[in-house]
Amino acid sequence: MIDQRILDRKLEHIRIVVEEDVDFPDNCSKIYNGIRLIHQAYPGINLDDVDLSIDFLGYNLKYPIMITGMTGGNPGVKEINKMLALIADEYGIAIGVGSQRAMILHRNDDEIRRSYRVVRETARNVPVIGNIGANTLHDLSISEILDIVQYLEADALAIHFNPAQEAIQPEGDTRFSRNILDKIAELLDALPVPIIVKEVGNGLSYETVKKLHGVGINYFDVAGACGTNWILVEKYRSNNEVRKKIAEDLSNWGIPTPYAVVEARSAAPSSFIIASGGVWSGLRAVINIALGANMVGLAKPLIKNLMKGGIKQARLFMKTFIEEMRIVSFLIGVDNLDKLHRSPIVLPSDMLNYMKQRGLDHLVYGEARRFIK
Ligand SMILES: Cc1cc2nc3c(=O)[nH]c(=O)nc-3n(C[C@H](O)[C@H](O)[C@H](O)COP(=O)(O)O)c2cc1C
């Protein structure tokens, strides 16, 4: 039987994210304004020589960027996934699909399965990342998960942790107990590709990364609290006055993206870290990579530009984002990612204070940054 609720929920999420004001209230502008990369009047390089390419999951990508998982699971979103995949392939960046649970629930529905598969078929030259919720792992067998990875020909599987979203979501599933770690350890053995652990916009902490690194995870997408805010998205969908009030009170809940990058890099210094969650400009991308991320990820701006102005507008967004990354790198005298990881960065006192209280102060953190590969 078709679980219409999951299919409808996906469309509703897209509509709310695109049409309504559901971002973190100040988008972390205060934090970003306080983080300083150092302008070099004599950069010592040519803008044309800036090369931000990166090896990721067996591919050489032109830019350290991923369009993170958003959609699939409804015939109506196949075209969206196709357009996103076209952009990923064109610009040489990685791309994820949205939760593949619908694929498991509707294993015989070819249209639903193809709404994901179109990404692999369109983006042949870049990594494609599968997606499943951590809390749903309880209900799924290893072979069901293997099937969604293989059908997509995925280069990695993202497992998303979204307890804040589930806690506010009217039909939320809040089972996040200890045995998720056992299931992930089992999956790591069974899958032919790596697992990326991700949040959806409330940030990964030191403790969470440490636990998951402990069972063998080496890829993390911090998805911090600076961009799309799933507590506010679910508030929009809810008719429950209690949950709505709680959502308002928690509208700033989570770890801001730059802080989450520091938390994750300190907890698992040699792992691959993706900075996402409101990383919506080239400047923010360069700041996060200088701070300790290997790559940046973004979701909402691409789908919003696509829905509002078609592929032309989404392309223009991506082009601007990339050009801004290149120009900022040039202005700090950096022509590759290796140098960017070692470039000077000045942090605001609030951030230093946070790091100090978390035991991640700049001396400790400087050590962790040295492990970036
Ligand atoms: C419309 C939409 C649908 C999403 N669906 C998923 C999903 O199915 N699985 C997932 O892991 N993340 C999902 N996300 C979260 C994004 O991958 C990303 O972590 C989050 O939106 C933060 O990035 P942003 O601030 O650039 O939007 C979705 C995001 C959007 C905008």
Report what the structure shows.
- The structure is a single chain.
- By secondary structure, the protein is of the alpha/beta class.
- It has a single domain, classed as Aldolase class I (TIM Barrel), CATH 3.20.20.70.
- It is 49% helix and 11% strand.
- The strands form three sheets. Strands 4-5-6-7-8-9-10-11 form an eight-stranded parallel barrel, surrounded by five helices. Strands 1-12 form a two-stranded antiparallel sheet.
- It is globular, with a radius of gyration of 20 Å.
- The mean pLDDT is 94.
Task: Using brief descriptors, characterize the structure shown.
373 residues, alpha/beta, TIM Barrel, eight-stranded parallel beta barrel, two-stranded antiparallel ribbon, 17 helices
Quick take:
This protein has 373 residues and is an alpha/beta fold.
Instruction: Tell me roughly what share of residues is in helical segments.
Output: 40-55%
Question: Could you name the CATH topology?
Answer: TIM Barrel
Low-confidence parts: none
Strand content: 5-15%
CATH superfamily: Aldolase class I
| Nearest-integer average pLDDT | 94
The sequence of SSEs as H and E is: HHEEEEHEHHEHEHHEHEHHHEHEHHEHH
User: How many domains would you count in the coordinates?
Assistant: 1
Just give the CATH class: Alpha Beta
Taking Cα atoms only, what radius of gyration do you get, to the nearest Å? 20 Å
Distance between the termini: 47 Å
Helix and strand content put the structural class at alpha/beta
Number of strands: 12
Cofactors, ions, other ligands: flavin mononucleotide
